[in-house]
Give the backbone structure.
Amino acid sequence: MSLSPTLVDLDRPSPGLPSHSEPRQVDAPRPLGGPDQPTGKEPGGGAFGGDVALTGCGDSVESTATFLESLTLCVMEVLAGVRDLDQVARWVSDDVYRHLTQRVVLSARARQVKGDRTIRPTFTIGRTVQSEPAPGVVEGVVIVHGKARSRAVALRLERLNSRWRASAINVL
């Protein structure tokens, strides 16, 4: 585990429900889990040395909100160029993957033209709002505060077997 006080540890039980109305500093987790991959709950921290697991298989409101926030931070890091898109491929549909691929290429070109370096952005999660318009479907909006501006990320999750998969992601 990192010595940074901003890492959110989902494996440790919290004393109460998190308040999504208060901003908090977080680092994005690494996607883990699956039948043949470590979950991060093994002794020694799993494949990434104790990083947060992005499992996406809970039914509770808290676990769905946590998944929305984690996936949002992963997507923001993909767009910033500090995370490989393949790391979130299993959590998004083919259409979303193609769209994110185009956005990653455009972002990389823009950084190259400007001469900007790729740096890991620092985000603060604001409010997370979610609804269930149909059984097995969750739509949510996560507010992400950066140093320069705040953005809203709208996601639509659909249940695929025993896990969630994002069928739409829009960064506003």
About this structure: Residues 1-24, 26-53 have pLDDT under 50 and may be disordered. The longest strand covers residues 123-134. Residues 122 and 146 are 6 Å apart (CA to CA). The chain has two helices and five strands.
